[in-house]
Amino acid sequence: MKKIVSLLLVLSMAVSLFAGCSKKEEANNATEATTAAETTAAAEETTEAPEEVSQGVTDTTIKVGNTAATSGALAAVGVPFNAGIEAYFKSVNDAGGINGRKIEFVHYDDEFDPVKAKSATEKLINDDKVFAIVGHFGTPTIGATLDMLKETGIPTVYFAAGIASLYNEDATSVEKGQGLFPVQPIYVTEGRLMVARAIEQHQAKKIGVIYTNDDAGKDLLSGVENQVGKLGGDYSVVTEQINPGATDVTSAALKMKNENVDIIIAASIQATLPTIIKGLISQGVSKPVFTTYSNADATTISNFAADYAAMGEQFPIYSNAWVDLSNQEEVDAFVKGMTDFGQPDYAGNAFAMAGWIAGYFMVEGLNRTEGALNWENFNAGMESAEFKIPMGGTLNYADGQRLGTQSMSLLKVSADGTKWENVKPVEDLNVILDRVQ
Does residue 230 register a pLDDT over 70? Predict the structure, then answer.
């Protein structure tokens, strides 16, 4: 009996040991399985998902677009401007595109109407799903859509205007306007530059300003007043406001005459400048006139050329220009490009030059984009290095700078009123200010 009990005890212990070993092995196996699963999960977590491209990008195309006035009063600006963009894109597409992708350009005519412009911009972003806006055209359009552009974060390259709301020293997030890339000078900066030029060219101290009651006119005036304020008590500003598109500026011209200002700044864009010049001529005001780069085109001055050429004693009419017509090599490259790529009628047009430059900045940004072609990488590419502006100075978007170029030349209307002639080369604002302060 004792032997049987002993045998049962031995068997029981053996079963217990076996069961213990089995449970231990099961526990070890379970631990190993858990560890393997955790390792796999961790590996999956640390492996980055492939970057995705943004809207408007396929394996073969990149879709971009704009809304601009290609009919109506501003068609003389919008048509050649878009022609410059299209010619530049065609030159790139004919050479193989951007890493094998061809650029598609979608355009809507907004007739310079901010309501139509806003609707068309929404369509470009939400329906056409363009990758970027290129050559966002005109002060009214920009004012009506700027909040939308910031909210969506869509890259917007080149604004065909220089309103103050584009100026930003800290565009370090999408919410702050990181995707907005102005190229043209900002009007506030240009107003300061006009004062510096007036002092340098004519030793002016009493500055007259005829300004339109819109963003362009008021921003230019703000820059003038800002710079005169910095100069101190020897300098003063006399102002007179007019409506955009005014047909009679007699009152403004007489005020400049009666106040005996040293020079007059015509703070208005294309539609109103000819009226201002004709008004000054008719009232016998013969003071030097300075106007914005937006008017530096033969089309604009042709509207007062006959009156100007017929004057017995002409007063000089100046304009800034951020494109450098004295750089013959780059001008020739533009003319050849417009001719070779389908737009020969605009090969000598200043607005087409602006469009060509807009196209260049868009393409250069695409070429600088590393990784997947999405908005974040594109913005980083735009900020990665300084740009050399074709037929112009330089521009840098690094560290959130959105200042527009501050380098401009000085032009003057020829005696026959048919063209702008170069007076001063492209120089940075601070260089000019150093000479006159």
Answer: yes
